[in-house]
Amino acid sequence: MGCVQSFRDLCDHPKNTNIRISLPAVCIVWQTAMIILFGIFIRYNEESDPHWAEHKKANNISSDIENDFYYRYPSFQDVHVMIFVGFGFLMTFLKRYSFGGVGFNFLIAAFGLQWALLMQGWFHSLDYTDGKIKIGIENLINADFCVAGCLIAYGAVLGKVSPVQLMVLTLFGITLFAVEEYIILNLIHARDAGGSMVIHTFGGYYGLSISWMLYRPNLNHSKRLQGSVYHSDVFAMIGTLFLWMFWPSFNSAITGHGDGQHRAVINTYLALASTVLTTVTISSLTQKHGKLDMVHIQNSTLAGGVAVGTAAEFMLMPYGSLIVGFCCGIISTLGYIHLSPFMEKHLKIQDTCGIHNLHAMPGVVGGIVGAITAAAATESVYGHEGLIETFGFKDGFKHRTPAVQGGHQAAALCVALCFAVGGGIIVGCILRLPIWGDPADDNCFDDEVYWEVPEDEEDAPVPPYNNHMRNKNVAESDFSMERSRP
User: Fold this and answer.
1) Which residues, 6+ apart, have CB-to-CB distance to 475 below 8 Å?
2) What is the DSSP code string of 99-122?
3) 456-to-94, 146, 232, 459, 468 alpha-carbon distances in Å
4) pLDDT per residue over 95-104, tens digit each?
């Protein structure tokens, strides 16, 4: 481990600097830049533009129901709730970092989706006739997917970094994501409907690599706050339930209309159900007196949705979905019990939320399942047209066979890992600069560093402007005086 520490030291910078980049400055500069860039590049696409009426006539479209909005908006709603409510509340488990968990999730998601529309637009939606990015409802879904990768990475450094560091993490994360996504989906032509590789594997190992670079040997000074209380775990469970319920929409949101989308929902639904039962079983068997650990229920119950993502639209078969969920329930729960402590002690990776067990490992499993399922595809199972539609064997890829597609799926997983680890190490070096205002070792996992936190209820004085309470006190005082009169 000496060479690891030497590498970190190379990336270290002198701490004796008075330069600090403030959050308001970053926000106002960034929003100004977005307004300018959106003004230059972003326009409505043909389905969200007033020229839709002319487009309908030119293409013999008889009804507005064929506008993509009516196909995609329900899925967009579900994915949007997952990003802001699901991920946000999942991170409120720390006893004194609930404001930071849900609030900074809100900040970096709103920050990141604007940059994602630009980055993904330049790669996927650029109209070369006028140099403009044309966006519609599907672009909004993809922007949320892009942000999801950064929110996953956020989980690894939760409570240990400043909001400015989170914005830097998101800026570079979305840039890396857009490039990685283009290589995997367009150049390699891999299929990854639910993002097991593109979103979860990338986001997981990107966050873990950053956490490795930002290792704090004295983090035990904040150990008293690195845990939950009863009500914080209940709040985190709200996030779990939102994610669990809407994950079928996440995995099917951008699949082709019809059987592929239908299949993706069914496969995800079954994998998630299987994971819950497996997680409960493993958690009970490994805990004292057969009790359940809320950490496992909050996190490992979602692992099946991650792992089935790549193969969600394939002919995985219902029993195959149950098997994937079963395996990931075991892997994820045992990861929380054995692997997370090992990683912190021996690999110097401090993973606050356990994203390695919920996203990274299940994402790799999903990539492997996708490669095997693609390689095993046959025309007798899919049908001639079904095989072409499912794997996109058209145009320049019309001569590709399922076996070759399986190899390309495996190559895509390697690309996701390379971008995640390599990009995370580079970004981690940048985040070690002493200008970001990160918390001291003894102030981690504490909202008071960055938030105005109300006093505890039992210690808080009655505010003078609270008329209801003031009148109540006056009434009680009058009542006491009446009682004391002879």
Assistant:
1) none
2) HHHHHHHHHHHHHHHHHHHHHHII
3) 16, 38, 15, 5, 20
4) 999 999 999 9
As a whole number of angstroms, the distance between CA 174 and CA 172 comes to 6
Q: Which two tokens stand for residue 260?
A: 């592929």
Q: How far apart are CA 146 and CA 474, in angstroms?
A: 56
Distance CA 324, CA 303 (A): 9
Residue type, 144: D
d(CA 43, CA 127): 10
As a whole number of angstroms, the distance between CA 366 and CA 200 comes to 9
DSSP 378: -
Q: What CA–CA distance (Å, rounded) separates 265 from 79?
A: 13
Which residues contact residue 395 at a Cβ distance below 8 angstroms, ignoring those fewer than 6 apart?
A: none
Segment 285-334, tens digit of pLDDT: 998 889 999 999 999 999 999 999 999 999 999 999 999 999 999 999 99
Residues in the chain: 486
Q: What is the pTM of this model?
A: 0.90
Distance of alpha carbon 128 from alpha carbon 123, whole angstroms: 11
CB within 8 A of 332, min separation 6: which ones? Answer: 275, 279, 296, 299, 300, 303, 357, 358, 361, 362
Asked if 148 and 112 count as a contact pair (C-beta separation under 8 A), the reply is no
Question: DSSP letter at 444?
Answer: T
